[in-house]
Amino acid sequence: MFFLFLGTYVIGVAAGSIGQVKSARQAEMYDYLSSAVTEYNANASKSIKSVAADNIKLFLPVAAGGLFKAGILIIAAVIFIKGYSAGFSVTAVLRLYGIRGIVLCGANFLSILFIIPALAYYGSVSAYGLIWELEERRQFYKRYFFCIVILALIMLADSFTRGFLSSLFMKFAGVITKTA
Question: Tens digit of pLDDT for each residue in 123-142?
Answer without folding.
Answer: 888 887 776 655 677 777 88
